[in-house]
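Q: what does this look like with adenosine-5'-triphosphate bound?
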Amino acid sequence: MVITVGNTKGGCGKSTIAVNLAVEFAKEKKIILVDSDVQASSMSFRAKREKDDIQSIAINTPTLHKDLKVLNENKIVIVDVGGRDSTVFRSAILAADLLIIPVLPSLYDVWALEDTLVVLREAKVYKENLKAYVLLNQLLSNTWLAKDVTEHIQKLKDENEIELMGTMIYSRQVYKNCITAGLGVTEYPGAPEKAIQEIQGLHTEICNILHI
Ligand SMILES: Nc1ncnc2c1ncn2[C@@H]1O[C@H](COP(=O)(O)OP(=O)(O)OP(=O)(O)O)[C@@H](O)[C@H]1O
Ligand SMILES: [Mg+2]
């Protein structure tokens, strides 16, 4: 099963989400974390991690969707992909059973989704059943999600372009701290219960979507 965490937009939380999901899945399943971004944040996370439960490799070539076939057997593969190289990005989407698109809750970021959707539409020609979900990340706790953001996402849902994850991730310092420690938030000492619930909730929601 391949879960790609991708968005052509930088800094929306791809690596943060990918490594936290890897930690959750590694509690029960064999997991490979594939870093397809030349910036290699997921590889740096693995290097910091003392526990050897997450195997990690870097593949940033456009043959990713073919290469992953051998790795995929009985494993959960999580791909962290940036949008810097469009051919690698396309390949990582083609490889996916599920595409998670982290999006910051601003109208600019929701508009910028169009670049990712262009690639997604192309991939769906070859992979009709590819599931794509927007995951809102870095919400601010004391503000409602802006109406224009929800309206635009609803429009994309109505047009069958994407789904929206029920789980939403709030902006919390612990998401920054845990990565540098090589830990997921669910393992991080003193992590707020709400952050733990977010990542566990995301993990459960993904398992339900993929029937795993
Ligand atoms: N929910 C969150 N709460 C607080 N900080 C966050 C959260 N999600 C991500 N960040 C921070 O935002 C920054 C960008 O996150 P991250 O590196 O995961 O994004 P990215 O999409 O992988 O970026 P890039 O495009 O550069 O690869 C990092 O400093 C990260 O710690
Ligand atoms: Mg990254």
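The mean pLDDT is 93. Residues 2-210 form a domain with the Rossmann fold fold (CATH 3.40.50.300).
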